[in-house]
Structures are given as structure tokens and as C-alpha cells.
Amino acid sequence: MTDPQPASFTIRPAVAGDRAQLGRLGAQMVAVHHAFDARRFIAPTPETPDVYGGFLIRQIARPESVLRVAATGDAVLGYVYAGVEGNDYMALRGPAGVIYDLIVAPDHRRQGIGRALLEAAMAALAPHALPRLVLFTAERNAEAQALFASVGFHRTMVEMTRDLA
After folding, report:
1. Could you tell me the CATH number of the domain that includes residue 112?
2. Helix, strand, coil % (nearest 5) of the chain?
């Protein structure tokens, strides 16, 4: 099986009209993580697309937030959500840019969209002159980890979970 032909897409700031599509992608991300480890990650519900989409659209107004979409026409193929954070003593980390979400619709993967979104987020965070960028990725998400490593991210923390119930 060959990779699909590269999509023609543009990277642009998200707008309120993207809410439903962002919500569907966010719900897909929740579902994938839940499938990775149902004890660790929350399960999607019928309300997840609307709740997640609303959350993301509210981030547009926050000056420390970055929300970019990859789109072709009116179709949102993926998005990246990132932000600027100060010192985080619980994480033993100084100021940083944080990549919170990066997702590309499954039928548009392996076409450079994820890399373009990641680069757009990094460019949007660059004027803040942050000393580092950080992100979290699911242990089982090897494809995402390979993308992040290819642009210079390296492993620094390992989350471990113990169920109490």
C-alpha cells in the first residue's frame, strides 16, 4: 500500500467557525488515547466534540495561546494547540512553550501536515524568546514520537501511573 498523495493545504489561525471540526478532531484524539490505555485516559462521550471544540475556540482570545489549523477549503485536516507558560515548580521547569495538542485526521496523515502544524506552532511561539519547548505524548504513540524527535525534541520525563481503585 502506498502513501496517499500529498494534500494541498494551508496553515492558518483557527476561527470560531472551525469549532465543530476542531471538536471532532479533539474527540478523535481523546478516543485514540483512551484506546491506548483506558485506565489512564478519559473516555470520549457524545458531548466530547462540542465540549472540546468550545474549549479550543475559547483559547483563540488568550494572548498566550496558539491555535492553528491545516485546512483545504473549509475542511480542517488537523490542528495544533500550544501556549506559553511560566515557571512550573511541579514539573521542575522554567518558562516554556508547551505543545498541548497536535492531531491530523487519519486519512490525511503522512502528507507533511503534522510537521507543518508543529513548525507553525514553533514559529508562533518564537517571538516569546522562550528557552525551551515541551510536550507530552502517549507512550504507545510511536508515530508522533518519531515526528517530534525529527524536529529536535528529546525524552526528558516518564509518566508512571498506578491505579488506586
Report:
1. 3.40.630.30
2. 35, 20, 40
Indicate the length of the chain as a whole number. 165
Q: How confident is the model at residue 2 (pLDDT cuts 50, 70, 90)?
A: very low
Which pTM was predicted?
A: 0.92
Distance CA 69, CA 23 (A): 12
* Angstrom distance (rounded) from CA 68 to CA 31: 21
Q: pLDDT tens across 13-47, in order? A: 999 999 999 999 999 999 999 999 999 999 999 99
60 by Cβ neighbours in 10 Å (0-12 / 13-18 / 19+) ranks as middle
Walk across the sheet containing 75-85 and list its strands.
Answer: 10-13, 65-72, 75-85, 96-104, 133-135
The answer to the question of residue 162 being in a domain is no
Residue 26 within any structural domain of the chain: yes
Overall domain count for the chain: 1
Q: Is 53 helix (H, G, I), strand (E, B) or coil?
A: helix
Residue 76 belongs to domain spanning: 10-150
Is residue 158 domain-resident?
no
